[in-house]
Amino acid sequence: MSQVDTQLEDIRSQIEQEIPNDITITDVKYEGPELVVYTRDPKRFAGDGDLIRRLASQLRKRITVRPDPSTLSPPSEARQQVLDVVPEEAGISDLDFHADTGEVVIEAQKPGMVIGRRGSTLREITQEVGWTPEVVRTPPIESSTVSNVRNFLKQEREERRDILERVGRQIHREELSDEEWVRITTLGCCREVGRAAFILNTPETRILIDCGDKPGAEGEVPYLQVPEALGAGAQNIDAVVLTHAHLDHSALIPLLFKYGYDGPIYTTEPTRDLMGLLQLDYLDVAAKEGRTPPYESAQVREAIKHTIPLEYGDVTDIAPDVKITFHNAGHILGSAVTHFHIGDGLYNVAFSGDIHYDDTRLFNGAVNDFPRVETLVLESTYGGRNDYQTDQEDSERRLKEVINETYERGGKVVIPAFAVGRSQELMLVLEEAMRNGDIPEMPVHLDGMIWEATAIHTTYPEYLRDDLRDRIFHEDENPFLADQFNHIDGGEEERQEVADGEQCIVLSTSGMVEGGPIMSWLRHIGTDPDSTLTFVGYQAQGTLGRRIQNGWDEIPVDGWGGGGRGDTLTLNMETETVDGFSGHADRQGLENFVKTMNPRPEKVLCVHGDESSVQDLSSALYHDYNMRTFAPKNLETFRFK
Amino acid sequence: MSQVDTQLEDIRSQIEQEIPNDITITDVKYEGPELVVYTRDPKRFAGDGDLIRRLASQLRKRITVRPDPSTLSPPSEARQQVLDVVPEEAGISDLDFHADTGEVVIEAQKPGMVIGRRGSTLREITQEVGWTPEVVRTPPIESSTVSNVRNFLKQEREERRDILERVGRQIHREELSDEEWVRITTLGCCREVGRAAFILNTPETRILIDCGDKPGAEGEVPYLQVPEALGAGAQNIDAVVLTHAHLDHSALIPLLFKYGYDGPIYTTEPTRDLMGLLQLDYLDVAAKEGRTPPYESAQVREAIKHTIPLEYGDVTDIAPDVKITFHNAGHILGSAVTHFHIGDGLYNVAFSGDIHYDDTRLFNGAVNDFPRVETLVLESTYGGRNDYQTDQEDSERRLKEVINETYERGGKVVIPAFAVGRSQELMLVLEEAMRNGDIPEMPVHLDGMIWEATAIHTTYPEYLRDDLRDRIFHEDENPFLADQFNHIDGGEEERQEVADGEQCIVLSTSGMVEGGPIMSWLRHIGTDPDSTLTFVGYQAQGTLGRRIQNGWDEIPVDGWGGGGRGDTLTLNMETETVDGFSGHADRQGLENFVKTMNPRPEKVLCVHGDESSVQDLSSALYHDYNMRTFAPKNLETFRFK
Ligand SMILES: [Zn+2]
Ligand SMILES: [Zn+2]
Ligand SMILES: [Zn+2]
Ligand SMILES: [Zn+2]
Ligand SMILES: [Zn+2]
């Protein structure tokens, strides 16, 4: 009998001592970080609302109770019972019964009404029906990503249970080492932006944090081949933790599966879906540009299959000596500051991922409130001494001015934007401005992946700023459903119509004018001197966006939606730049994030910024707060403890 | 055909173009770092003294020419021919013919006479006899270590050739990576003395430098299990480089073979022999103390079998992108400052190993003259702000005083000493003092491994200080052969006789009174108030030597050479401490080593010293010479380039 089996036997007897004699436990097993208890009497369990909580705190484990398959009523019967218990207004759109685990997945427009006050309706379902309910939201805007992911996971359910059980046993394996140390190795995004990747290493455990690409430098991938990472064999990595879906953090995660990795990816649920969307697009773009992508869509599916989603605030065992907790990072949907608690009080490390410190329209500001953090790994995108951003209020005022000026000229406003995050922020600005009459009502056309990304946002309103979440919960106030927003899904024909039609605003990818439908919009509208090309996001060195900002007006238009090879277009549009819509904290925000931590970390590693940004931020934090600060290079290892 | 085979074909054609048409090449292969050329016409090759040198410089390889086995005269015939060519005064003591390689190993009392002026006699042998001569010295003092090692290597000759060929092909393999970086990972001896071990890592190559134990803390071994070291598989280490034989640098090298390492160990020839001696003793001591040693003597033999000895100053390829050069370190016999040249001018790192900067009687001072060194990894044993040692002249005067005072009282002088290095230094002091009449002539008894270690010193006089080397070359002046020196090889009986006999000096291991025959000498002489126990070396915290220095006079005497369990002895001897015979540079020496480097390194890693020593030295070098200095912890990785 393995050590994990012995452990499970022990736990089972502890549970049996705690519960009433007439409740029968049929199995106790690990599935991922959770302890799953199978019982012939799920209704009795559900009857005592506090029993599971008591067990969880006694065993210091996350516990799920499921009915033993032998006790289940037939799905046909159970279906009706569920529909009877749940109020009709919940808007159940799908019911999916899994006899193997006794779970019923309830997709509903209003998940809160399926859950009930403090879980009362859920408990009622268990008591009445016997099946264990799991609730997901019906996307208020149809999202092919969300439905593809959900269908895929449904289809791969059996393999996924095997994975979870294997991972669960790994997490709860016996600790072997009596040494104590903590190390971080930098595999990327040091003194640069891009290819985020770190190894957190203890004598027991190796965790990869992020695994991104470097936009504009496809050859420069994280140093995965060194022995600290995959060089010692991909199976030596215990877990992957993903802070958010941006490709500079997620693009190369599927590659791990090509190299033989077979373990879990911990991230939030929205990050999982956005990651799938962005990775598949990454493959698409590579194909269109004639590059051979480093992996196939099959590996994207592997990544999704191996993802174990965690919610903000859940303290989760991911190894015998490591617990993680995700906290809102304020950067994009699902983005997480990740707190690692190592050993039993031995050491604490927080990885900021990318953060926005202040509240935005979309998100609450990044959380920096941890019981203990000895070392902070901090992004430094805007860590430079002059990287203070315009106030968002001023930015919004300026954007509205640009729109109004263009409108008065009779032109259209074209905004290149990233699909995830900034587009939704702008949608909120535009929706409010029209509602308040600050700008005229007119259509806002969303092209590229923006619509799909917006749909994903509305599927996970819990991850949005609290007042926005409340508005989304009331369908009639959901700003993303406003009439002005139009999804460009009719291709070139629709674009031509829009270009020939009434005044409007166009939000289109790519955000740095590096391909994508924005190229087509430039062809259609670029020659109109009354229209305005409005930049709202950072334009990196070497991108066409940056060159246009710098005054270029001869634009290559081949390679997207027709147009002969080598064609160019003379840009006659006005161009404007409106700063202040960044998803990143500015220099002040980064300092505030650190300054208001209590207690403050002893050490800060400044990463994810160009050389001068990390150096500036590192020396400022050192001088102002007297912490030990570092601006590491890639491929260095820091020892803590 | 593998890439190495293609390369060898190329080289063969280049050679054939360069040499006269009538010389036949039968094979060209790598054996370790050397290119070996087999020919039917070894005599023709030998005839042109400059041909090999021209080829070597053209091919940028070390070249050895050997006769094709088919051309060899029978050994019986060849033996007489060799004896005819070599002058009788060379004192040939053994001739060993190896038909597989066409080599004849000539062991002679005066190797220089076998070699001849600029190699003329060697060339004559090849021309007359056809066999390729290799010359070794007949130990002037019989050394069982040296003869065991030589016999063992003779016996394992075939496997050794396989190893060399495999290593040779590894060294000359194709470079695969187009990345360029250099990293050092610390596996031990950081902020501590003991368990020296470093990994030098490039995209191409991983090299382990030293692999020692931590005296007095047997559990604290180098962090070999991390993925940068053996965690990724022992076969991922390309080479081991050993700076010197002390156990804190060499003790765990045999363990590597237990873990599956099968590659080369580069070190000097005397270090190889001393390493064997000390490792076998290490196993002995562990057995006597009832500990299970981490490996067996079989692994010590593996280590010796895999050793590729290099001489000071030889620039040697040990990987496609790494050349090393050993330089005298002045610390113990064969100790080497090791210079690594990485890439084609990419980067240079020097590992000091342990060094003594000034000349001593035994050794020239450490070499610090390199064409380029960007990073220096520097020992810091005496790096503390107050670690200035007594001048050796003063120390010698004080030692002679102690001896004279004891002699006048009618007592004996007992000196605990390390077998390797300090004992030989003391022998030289005592021999000269007696010769000059500074102290009375009296027997000097050498107990423990001191005699054997001395024998190894006399086998390799090339590694000793130049004037000492010259004296050893003339048998009548060899100071180690002086009549006063007596090897205690009669056990307890002889010790009893010496104790009961005339006045004398005893040098005995262990150096810190931690077991070994010194315990027996304390039993025999410890109660005599006229005798003096004289400490000449550093006594570490927690050792009996240190406690005696601090005034303890109740000595446990069980566990060595009889004496009941729990017996104690009251020490009535005088105790004296004479500083200044250290094998390590003092603080001034360390600073001088760095200061006089030209050019000075950009970065210095201060290691191999306790916490305050490395910190003191690191900040002193930073302030005085404005270099970037570090006092790393174990398990950190530094990136250069
Ligand atoms: Zn199903
Ligand atoms: Zn990001
Ligand atoms: Zn990022
Ligand atoms: Zn040493
Ligand atoms: Zn040492």
Automatic annotation (TrEMBL), chains A, B:
Details of cofactor binding:
Binds 2 Zn(2+) ions, which are required for nuclease activity.
Residues that, per the record, bind Zn(2+) 1:
244, 246, 331, 354
The alphabetized list of GO BP terms reads:
DNA-templated transcription termination
Coiled-coil region: none
Where is the region Metallo-beta-lactamase C-terminus?
583-641
- Residue ranges, annotated region (KHa): 5-72
Answer yes or no on keyword Zinc. yes
Where do the record's region annotations for Metallo-beta-lactamase N-terminus lie? Answer: 181-385
Instruction: Please report the stretch or stretches of sequence annotated as the K Homology domain.
Output: 98-165
Gene3D superfamilies given for it? 3.30.300.20, 3.30.300.230, 3.40.50.10890, Ribonuclease Z/Hydroxyacylglutathione hydrolase-like
Q: Does the keyword Phosphoprotein apply?
A: no
**Principal EC category:** hydrolase
Binding residues annotated for Zn(2+) 2, in chain numbering: 248-249, 354, 608
The UniProt annotation puts the region (KHb) at: 73-140
Q: What InterPro entries does UniProt report for this protein, alphabetically?
A: aCPSF1 (IPR019975), Beta_Casp (IPR022712), KH_dom (IPR004087), KH_dom-like_a/b (IPR015946), KH_dom_type_2 (IPR004044), KH_sf_prok-type (IPR009019), MBL (IPR050698), Metallo-B-lactamas (IPR001279)
List UniProt keywords, sorted A-Z: DNA-binding, Endonuclease, Exonuclease, Hydrolase, Metal-binding, Nuclease, RNA-binding, Transcription, Transcription regulation, Transcription termination, Zinc
MF terms in GO: DNA binding; RNA binding; RNA endonuclease activity; RNA exonuclease activity; zinc ion binding
Domain Beta-Casp spans what residues?
423-548
Pfam families, alphabetically? Beta-Casp (PF10996), KH_2 (PF07650), KH_TffA (PF17214), Lactamase_B (PF00753), RMMBL (PF07521)
Name the job this protein performs: Terminates transcription on the whole genome. Termination is linked to FttA-mediated RNA cleavage and does not require NTP hydrolysis. Cleaves endonucleolytically at the RNA exit channel of RNA polymerase (RNAP); the 5'-3' exonuclease activity of this protein degrades the nascent RNA released from RNAP.
Q: Which HAMAP family match?
A: FttA
The entry assigns this protein to a family as follows: Belongs to the metallo-beta-lactamase superfamily. RNA-metabolizing metallo-beta-lactamase-like family. FttA subfamily.
Assembly, in brief, is: Homodimer. Interacts with RNA polymerase (RNAP), interacts with the Spt4-Spt5 complex.
Task: Quote the protein name from its UniProt record.
Answer: Transcription termination factor FttA
The encoding gene: fttA
